[in-house]
Amino acid sequence: MIVYADLGCPHCASAWVEISRREATIVFRHFPVASKHPRSPALHAAAEAAGAQAHFFEMVDSLYADRGHVDDPHLWKRVEELGLDLDRFEADRRSDSVAARLRRDFVSGIRAGVTGTPAIFG
Amino acid sequence: MIGAGEPAPEFTLRDQDGKKVSLSDLRGKRVLLVFYPLDFSPVCSDQLSIYQEVKPEIEAKGVQMVGISVDSGFAHKAFQEKLGIDTPLLADFEPKGEVARAYGAYIEQVGHANRSLVLVDPKGTVEWVHESPTPLEIPGANLIFDALNAVA
After folding, report:
1. Alpha carbon distances (Å) from B118 to A58, A113, B143
2. B45 located within any domain
3. pLDDT, tens only, A20-51
4. Structural domains in chain A?
5. Per-residue pLDDT for A92 more than 90?
6. How many CB pairs under 8 A join A and B?
7. Is the pTM of this model over 0.90?
8. What is the count of structural domains for chain B?
9. Which SS3 state, helix, strand or coil, does residue A101 take?
10. How close B95 gets to chain A, by Cα (Å)?
């Protein structure tokens, strides 16, 4: 199951509760719509950076579970709770490769005709 | 709805800042006219937000994208600010829907345009059109890129 989702999107957050319970293998594709949710690109970059330390879905779950706490200090707190290396996280989330990954996913969503999130291809 | 190969009807409308914009001012580059129903409606908000995200790629192909609805320039300005977008929005306000009518995109029964895309070539001829089956359906931005790849 391929899911195009926006980490700043409230509809995605409620859908995620259901999606993450599924037995299916979930392919998460980044689809941050910055004009709607200005904080989204930073949250997607944070999820990728956590993913570089093998905690991608833990970060996604946490971001969706507490949408009121998504500023940088809240991200650092999550990093600490997940036992990740903060310096590496900070470097990774601002890296060109993470930015390129987010853009690649977004463009693939556009190519697939995604016009809103969450968009699910089963 | 107007068809490919027909001359694009000329128009002069005011944008969100009250500035007059004519189609002929944009001659020399491709223009994508995005007719949409109404500012602040949920579906239009999603459509323009998504298009904003790919605006750099659209512009990189030498295309100027403008939105057109029957709302006033003041409403357009507020809508732009709400969405955080900088796509120019033109007010087809008085006579109401005149430009949408000229392109065959107006729905008389509801008093606003259907969700329609019109690509105008640099010489002012319609190259491609897409009309949504209903105003509730957003044309994916993939359609725009497919069209641009086909005409380029």
Report:
1. 44, 18, 11
2. yes
3. 888 899 999 999 999 889 999 999 999 999 99
4. 2-121 (3.40.30.10)
5. yes
6. 46
7. no
8. 1
9. helix
10. 31
